[in-house]
# Entry
Amino acid sequence: MSNRRATTETQPFGVGIRAIGQYLPEKVVTNADLEEMIDTNAAWITEKIGIQKRRFASEGETTASMGAGALLDACRRADVDPDSIDLVICGTVTPDLMAPATAVAIMRRAGLSEAVAFDVNSGGCAGSVFALDVAVKYVRSGAYRRVAVVLADTVTKLLDPTDRMTAVIFGDAAACYLVEPTVPASGIRTVALRTEPGGYHSALVSRDPVVDAEGQQVHSDFGQNFIRIVGRDIRNFALENIPGFVRKLAEEENLTPADLDLIVLHQANRRIIEGIMDGLHLPHDRTVINVDRFGNTSAAGSVLALREAVDTGRIAAGDRVVLVSFGAGLSVGGALIRWSGPQEFLAAP
# Structure
């Protein structure tokens, strides 16, 4: 994996995450439910993958509707007018339409009229950092003061019902950062992005025709597009590369992993998360896990975990937090954050 230098904070002001919104579909699908739907075993799913249940979007829920719900939730948490948002960035691999951008649909559903909107497709799961980095750079440039970064995917609508592996892993959800300028030295300090193209075929959405047991061609909600993963490739890549990636990220701020208050990882599966923490020689309670309850929700997963850490008091102002996501590409994004307190934000209410 290439080792280019991370980007670090050099501006006279910082850029921080003011609030995190979320949207979770109401429909809960347990491992026992999956036993009734496909040829699988509930105990095996729990033991090998560490997932017990996940959320499925209903027929009426779309990527944009979930994203708008997360955006409005973030605004409520920050107590700001949604129309004060200058820019909406959506990271998704399940757009409702090929065009216009899903960010525009989110803006429309949320009732925004003054913002600019576009999508960022970084391949899915790594988007929680890739899309965030785009927002950070826009705020640092001075072009925008309040940016909503929405990570939303209806991954379950891409599932191949004949593929037992993908069917048990994924869930649907949306999350939203509100990103704003802060006082100097606060907020997102260092961002590192990496891509290993040798893993190009390890996680993808393909148009390969799928035929069921009766010989009938199967379609997803996205036509002939279905999600494909090589689980062994993802696991090996994560366990071999992510601990070292976190160490290098910490070194950019003259820290070691032991100096970090919390490490929030992509919610690929519980066993991978635990393996990464073991590779860092850190206790499992130094991270946050939600994949057991929500499944792998693509880019939203690590952001939802970050939100949970805030809500449960596991993150306080001044804490050193690392956010790392990885996925199709194979791509990795990491952000080292000095968590900002409410009084450190500079944007107008």
